[in-house]
Amino acid sequence: MEKWIIALGLSVAVAGCTREAGYELDQGTFGNATLNNIQVLNGELTYGQILARRFAAEVPTQINFAFDSAQLDASAQRILLQQADWIKQFPEVRFRVYGHTDAVGTSAYNKRLGQRRANAAVAFLTQQGISRSRLEAVVSFGKSRPLVATPDRDRRNRRTVTDVSGFVDRHPGLLDGKYADVIYREYITSAEPVSAIQRQEDAGGDGG
């Protein structure tokens, strides 16, 4: 038994030595930026896909509806307001809104209902100042793509999903770098002016 414990201890120690320096600080994410750049250069990852991932990570992309309804409740409106705030930061980017329903009813009826839901979401976004030209190809999948496979009523399936679809053609602020241009603009606008009081504190005085 003692030999087994010693051997186990050695195996743990050896495994620990195989980790890269700085592993505890990095949490295994170091190198993702390099991989990301390689995928973009190889055509495996597009700038639109990068922004789509970011949009999905930073903003709720889905809203839900009551049964047989395309009305936006308070929760849906709050989420759409978050989407609108995010969309406004990226005038170079286009979006699509997809409408869905649950399985109750005919395919034809649900196709129309999904379209009404997508139209409702788009109308709300345009009311927040988003150009309709940036909300392209509003699509209804009806009941063909449920989140939950059930023939019954299910609110989770009664939804719209907003997604990044690409970049606006010939946008005046769009450079060849596309995503790099977006990030650079964010970096510049994030800078905040230093107040006179802060300058005094940084200089080591209090003005007295």
Q: Can you walk through the features of this model?
A:
This protein is α+β, with helices and mostly antiparallel strands. The chain has a domain at 46-190: OmpA-like domain (60s Ribosomal Protein L30, Chain: A, 2-Layer Sandwich), CATH 3.30.1330.60. Helix content is 47%, strand content 12%. The chain is built from eight helices and four strands.
Radius of gyration based on Cα positions: 25 Å
| CATH-defined fold name of the domain at 46-190 | 60s Ribosomal Protein L30, Chain: A
Termini separation comes to: 74 Å
Number of strands: 4
Tertiary shape: elongated
- What's the SSE pattern? HHHHEHEHEEHH
Reading off the top of the CATH hierarchy, the class of the domain at 46-190 is best stated as Alpha Beta
* Global structural class: alpha+beta
Query: How is the main sheet built?
Result: 4 strands, mixed
Strand content: 5-15%
The assigned CATH architecture of the domain at 46-190 is 2-Layer Sandwich
Fourth-level CATH superfamily of the domain at 46-190: OmpA-like domain
Number of helices: 8
Q: How helical, in percent, are the residues? A: 40-55%
Strand order of the largest sheet: 1-4-2-3
Which stretches of 5+ consecutive residues score pLDDT under 50?
2-17, 22-26, 204-208
Question: What's the overall average pLDDT, rounded?
Answer: 76
